[in-house]
Amino acid sequence: MQAALRYVAVSVGYDRTPVLTDVDLDLRPGQRLALVGPNGAGKSTLIKSVLGLAPILAGRASVLGADPAAARGRAGYVPQTDTLDADFPVSVRQVVMMGRYRRIGWWRPARAADRRAVAEALDRVGLAGRAGHRFGTLSGGQRQRVLLARAIAAEPRLLLLDEPFNGVDAVSQEAIVAVLRQLSAEGTALVLSTHDLGVARELADLVCLVNGRQWAVGPPGETLTADKLRLTYGGHAVDLPDGRMMLVEP
Ligand SMILES: Nc1ncnc2c1ncn2[C@@H]1O[C@H](COP(=O)(O)OP(=O)(O)OP(=O)(O)O)[C@@H](O)[C@H]1O
Question: Is 76 close to ligand 1, i.e. is its CB under 6 Å away?
């Protein structure tokens, strides 16, 4: 079976300066990988490298069996909602239809199959009733679900999500988690970055701990341990007197 994602000793960064090194990943179809690390650890840069938007400076990388630059557009991407302009004067349906453009070609009208894929994607995220609403009038959590629907409409075999639960209410978080579980059961490989160790533990098959370099990768039970989190978070891991540990963001 072809790996959805394979990185061997990869460094990624900007202007030839690495921001994240020693990345070794092997993600199979249907597996869920959580990228965990503090602010500025390089999680977004790693995601961008998979999308062909940040350069691979060293090592070997393959995305859906191809070089990341060649695989550009084949992996799905759900950006952080706060990077989008909420005043964008488009309907929810139009945002989700954007996920079909690569299949349709921007110059051709949408076909029945495209409209069906959009309706199904909105239904999966529980927003079928909002199709005609203006995107900017939705809550942050609902906007995040629309962006997930847009990615689903493209039917990717690999889907990357950058902090999908940031600023998201509990109802939307539950809806997103349920959809991600279904997608992976259908064979879609998932990569998501998160600050939330609880989410990583609950949702991920594999956790990759990063901060400037990869510190560990493996199942949650082997990676989300006090020792490995201390290594990854350095001085930002504070030992509490009762034996527990608290992570403090820089
Ligand atoms: N376009 C860019 N050009 C140069 N440096 C960048 C660029 N984007 C990010 N960086 C730097 O790369 C480092 C890693 O940033 P990145 O956004 O990948 O971290 P992150 O783990 O996603 O953090 P956060 O959780 O805050 O989003 C930071 O030092 C950041 O300043």
Answer: no
